[in-house]
Amino acid sequence: MTLQRSLIASVVLSAASMTAAQATELTVYTAVESDDLQKYAERFNQAHPDIEIRWVRDSTGVITARLLAEKDNPQADMIWGLAATSLLVLEEEGMLERYAPAGIEKLDPKFVDVAYTRDGEDPAWVGMDAWVASICYNTIEGEKNGVPKPTSWNDLTQPEYEGHVIMPNPNSSGTGYLDVASWLQLWGEEQGWDYMDRLHDNISRYTHSGSAPCSLAATGETTVGVSFAFRGARLKSQGAPIELVFPEEGLGWDMEAAAIVAGTDKREAAQTLMDWAVSQDANELYNEGYAVVAYPGVAQPIDNYPSNIVERMIDADFQWAALNRKRVLDEWQRRYDSKSEE
Amino acid sequence: MIASTLMPARLRSSEALIRLAALLLGLALLVVGLLLPLLTMLVKSVQDRNGDFIGLTNFIHYFQVPALVNSIQQSLFVALLSTMLVVSLAFLCAYGITRTCMPGKRVFRVLAILPILAPSLLPAISLVYLFGNQGWFREALMGQSIYGPIGIVMGMSFWIFPHALMILTTALANSDARLYEAAEALGTPKWRSFLTITLPGVRYGLISCTFVVFTLAITDFGVPKIIGGQYSVLATDVYRQVVGQQNFQMGAVVSVILLLPAVLSFIVDRLIQRRQVAQLSARAVPWQPTPAPLRDGLFAIFCYSVAGVILLVIGTAVYASLVQFWPYKLSLTLDHYGFDGLAGGGWSAWFNSLKLAFSVALIGTLVVFFNAWLIEKSDGFAPLRQGLHFMAMLPMAVPGMVLGLAYIFFFNQAGNPFNWLYGTLAILVLNTLIHFYTVCHLTSVTALKQLDPEFEAVGASLKVPFWITFRRITLPVSLPAVLDISVYLFVNAMTTVSAVVFLYNSDTRLASVAVLHLDEAGYFASAAAMAVLIFLTSLVVKLLHAALTHVLLTKAQRWRQAT
């Protein structure tokens, strides 16, 4: 390298490091669907170009396990888009920093940590949107394999579905856990496990992520994929021959939520992101993929979602789902793990 | 007068000091990059979450979980099946190359090594398109599912095949025509001379090949991860324990269990290598096949069928990456190569992989070759040199998953002076270099053994410091071998997934890991696209390497033809 070229290189480098010095880097752990991550960061940067988001993304169970494993030496500054049941577990461990973002009073109280709505404390976490269980049914394969379109969860245990159903592993997938938690809440422990025993006989495999079962249904690798509405709606609009089924017994759901990780040395930037995460702009962003969001009046109907989705959602008890998370997952693993992908 | 006799002596002693320092540095690299991480991992396997010693409790717990123990048996089953399949196929093909006059040998040899250029995830993705529920040939499985042992064995056989072929081609190439002539003169039937001359002649190569293939099969992660379905093996168990459940202790236990068959096969291989004395005396006459139309034709059909399967698998991955929405919308598109905002990091991951591959190729080649040179061509410090050689052989026995996990344990310790490496590209470079160290070391040693020791002696008598001899003579003369090593490192750094899957962070995501994450998240076409991208990158580098070697051998290495 000539002297001139190395000089230019060093000038460019120092210019780059100067802009880097101006932007605060915020490490954000998330389970938000990866096709949306870039969009989330871009929208946020339109309002706050001075904060750069470094995403660490995996499925809900993996991110939760990772946060717990890093408890003594947290690597994340912030969590943006993780199941509320997971955040409740983290809160129990004292890993979240309480903060009331500007404008929080405008949110639907159901979406805010009860410590705020009930006790008037600063909330440990704030909800963003609800993601809702649904079944992806491939119409072409259904006809070919003689597998009728299901209308209920119970249908999936019928003999004609044997080997044609795929669902996510609740240990890695947040969607998988909300399914399991909702069945246990709908029918009680005994009947819930009995249902899963029967369902297990029909399952051909359990996948790592909550999206994969629907993607597999979309490509005809399976006829029925237990997944969530967001992925189904998106794949359907991409032209997949699938129909979304919203089982009649009720729809399990969980909240995506945001929180500041206790002990972060970038508190100011994290608070800025929290303020933005509850804003109307942010909620309009969430609404591009999710029909139910925290900010009242924002939600517009989304293609391929039923209009009455709010009424069909079960009365989910996140506190219960969080408190029993480890026990339920251990029990699930003991019973069904031999058929799991990872 | 006094000054002139003193100078060289001082130079010699300072040279010796530098030699010593270089040797110690080489040893330190392998101690920090291999030994200490492995020891840390062993320690972790007998500790609980809080780091207290609990003896074998973790292991006892492991053997009480049927799902985990089951994986041992399943791993052995698919590994043994793959080994049998690969060794038989590779033996027949190697026989065709070396012992027949079948046409198109060179083309076949090129096609046969293509699988090496792809990540092991690629055949697994292709198999879904070939034999999945929508696959073109699904009827061939007669109702069996491709997700499970069948898919694992097929996928592993695909990418391990070239490794076996190379070993067996070398083994079969060495032959003594005099034995066959004698057999013919005595009227021995062909099948009998095959059993009594050919097979015994290649038995060491065959055994060595069997163990190499078995080790690759039992430690592979990519294939069972993608196509294993509900069928878990040891390598996927390590991943599930560590990434899925962050249960590092159990990850360490499974790693120790995974280490056992690999170490065992390594030891057996070493013992055999030691017994393999020169079978070919200086008077041996290389055997030349004579044309035999029926035999040549049959081998050509067989070899080209194998090559056809290889092309089919790669072609399927390319097709999968181009189809709009398989299997319902078969128009072609380049959209899947956009990776826009998908899991895994897209094109930036590919750039990171390039950076990693170039760094490993450059740094690794120099380090490995220089160390091998210190071992082979310098004098003094014999125990140190033997120690370095021994350490250089060890990485072969360590599966990628185990090495990656061991790095987490060692480098992520608070208080470790190398802690700053954690989460950087540098740790990926170090890890990849160590992971593939042994083959490069052996290649270097072989190349150096071919050189006349006089070079060093002359250099020393001319009072030229050893590093100048190394730079001016040894390195240029060994350039073909050095290029081989650098391409080997480059390709492996592009394609490996097992070790690095534990070590990347959001700034250093790699293309091979992206394939995995895209597949996990359900973007199958984009996963295929990324795998194809890795394959094409390796292919381009390999072609450049072939061209460069060709030029070197014809232009700058004329001296070789004299010998």
UniProtKB/TrEMBL annotation, chain A:
Keywords: Signal. GO terms for molecular function: thiamine binding; thiamine pyrophosphate binding. InterPro entries: ABC_2-AEP-bd, Ferric-bd. CDD domains: PBP2_Fbp_like_1. GO terms for cellular component: outer membrane-bounded periplasmic space. Residues 1-23 form the signal peptide. One of its GO terms (biological process) is thiamine transport. The keyword DNA repair does not apply. It holds the Pfam family SBP_bac_6. This is Putative 2-aminoethylphosphonate ABC transporter substrate-binding protein.
From TrEMBL, chain B:
The chain crosses the membrane at residues 20-43, 76-98, 110-132, 152-173, 194-218, 248-268, 298-322, 356-375, 387-408, 420-440, 481-504, 524-553. Residues 72-269, 350-545 form the ABC transmembrane type-1 domain. The keyword Repeat does not apply. It is a multi-pass membrane protein. The keyword Transport applies. Keywords: Membrane, Transmembrane, Transmembrane helix, Transport. It is found in: Cell membrane. InterPro entries: AminoethylPonate_ABC_perm-1, MetI-like, MetI-like_sf. GO terms for cellular component: plasma membrane. It comes from the Bacteria. GO terms for biological process: transmembrane transport. Belongs to the binding-protein-dependent transport system permease family. This is Putative 2-aminoethylphosphonate ABC transporter permease subunit. It comes from Vreelandella rituensis.
